[in-house]
Design brief:
Pfam families: DUF763. By secondary structure, the chain is α+β, with helices and mostly antiparallel strands. The protein has 15 helices and nine strands. It has two domains: about 230 residues, no CATH class; about 120 residues, no CATH class.
């Protein structure tokens, strides 16, 4: 998995009409040149690359560190190829806010116009929905998804670009997916995750280290709410003692026994335990959670992906199952933020993060060549090249 962090803050306000129109015009020219040079499949692949996506947004008008780049660039590209989708072999669905929820309908609409098989269309819709579910439920990093866009080619390759916001820290985080690099939708499926900062603690159930937690969670889900409620009650009884022992930095693998019950004490830090704190969330009294877990007990999902895909399963259900799997059954998930490197803060000496110069140089070279081949006004062309050159 390739991971990346780009520094960008949360932007407010609307993009000026004159700027958006220029972005559409240049975006149309750039897309045509890139598709002619590399084909629609390669264009979709590059959209899934955080560095390339960020660079394209910079060429079209945006500052490198602007969160608005994601939403406006996607909207500009969608408008740029309007009525040319068939000729280019590229289709863009979804967008920001309410538009993101129309993604499945837009995919189905294109499927009908292109005479795609129902199986192919259903598969595209499923992948779009699962990408949104994974980034909102399995990567619990404090960012609320508000933008979802789905790119696909006439040959079936697809990419997802979605963005979440953290209003408390005034930052945004962008998630990239590419069909050809995914072997498992619920295990490290991203082609990149771009964010301003690494979070100290992220419940990352997509990590390979979380596979045992996924396995136990699925098994628990098939047993229904009754078994889950008993486990939660055990945790509640011992939560104060767990917190005390953690505070005293007592790391133990033995079982804590009280009144005939056993609770495995893991090597948890106080931060890790508080991320699952039952004092903050009373799972035992959630009617909604009871309903969902009983449904799962009836349907008995055969895989973790099937569990996640079940209607009604969201962040709280996943968090509750992960809690029991970890504290009662010893299946510790990953708490490491999947974002890794910073484009903006990297240094040649790898301090504080390494800079992938070859990737940047190749991206700049490709985009510079595309700009030169466009048929836009020479002045606008020169400005685009200068914007791109300033990032090299």
């Amino acid at each position: 998995m390739q991971r990346g962090v780009a520094t960008f803050t949360l932007d407010y306000g609307k993009c000026p009409r004159w700027l958006f129109e220029r972005m559409v015009k240049l975006g149309r020219e750039m897309t045509q040149v890139l598709v002619d040079e590399y084909g629609p499949d390669e264009f979709v692949k590059r959209i899934a690359d955080p560095v390339w996506f960020q660079s394209l947004g910079t060429v079209l008008a945006f500052d490198w560190n602007a969160s608005g780049l994601t939403t406006i660039l996607t909207a500009a590209l969608k408008e740029a190829i309007r009525y040319q989708e068939r000729d280019l072999g590229i289709f863009i669905c979804g967008g920001k806010g309410k538009t993101s929820r129309k993604t499945p309908d837009e995919i189905v609409g294109w499927g009908e116009r292109l005479n795609l098989s129902s199986g192919h269309v259903n598969n595209l819709v499923y992948n779009s929905k699962m990408a949104a579910k994974v980034d909102s439920s399995l990567v619990q990093d404090g960012f609320q998804i508000y933008h979802h866009s789905f790119f696909f080619s006439k040959n079936g390759h697809w990419a997802v670009v979605q963005q979440g916001m953290n209003t408390a820290s005034q930052t945004a985080r962008r998630y990239h997916w590419f069909s050809d690099t995914i072997t498992d939708l619920v295990c490290e499926p991203h082609s990149g995750i771009a964010s301003q900062v690494k979070q100290k603690t992220v419940l990352n159930l997509t990590a390979k280290e979380s596979q045992k937690n996924q396995k136990i969670s699925r098994q628990l889900a098939t047993l229904g709410y009754g078994r889950f409620a008993k486990d939660i009650e055990i945790i509640r009884k011992h939560s104060s003692e767990l917190s005390r022992m953690i505070a005293l930095r007592l790391r133990s693998g033995r079982a804590l026994r009280r009144r005939g019950e056993s609770l495995t004490l893991l090597e948890l830090t106080d931060t890790e335990f508080s991320s699952h704190s039952v004092m903050a969330e009373d799972f035992a009294k959630s009617r909604y959670l009871e309903k969902i877990l009983n449904r799962l007990g009836d349907t008995k999902p055969k895989t973790y992906e099937e569990l996640l895909a079940t209607t009604g399963v969201g962040p709280k259900t996943i968090r509750a199952l992960s809690l029991v799997s970890e504290v009662i059954y010893g299946a510790k998930p990953s708490y490491e933020d999947p974002a890794r490197y910073s484009f903006a803060h990297g240094g040649k000496d790898a301090t504080p993060y390494p800079v992938d110069r070859p990737t940047y140089d190749q991206t700049i070279s490709i985009l510079s060549g595309a700009v030169r081949k466009t048929h836009i006004n020479p002045i606008e062309k020169d400005k685009a090249l200068k914007r791109l050159g300033s990032k090299s």
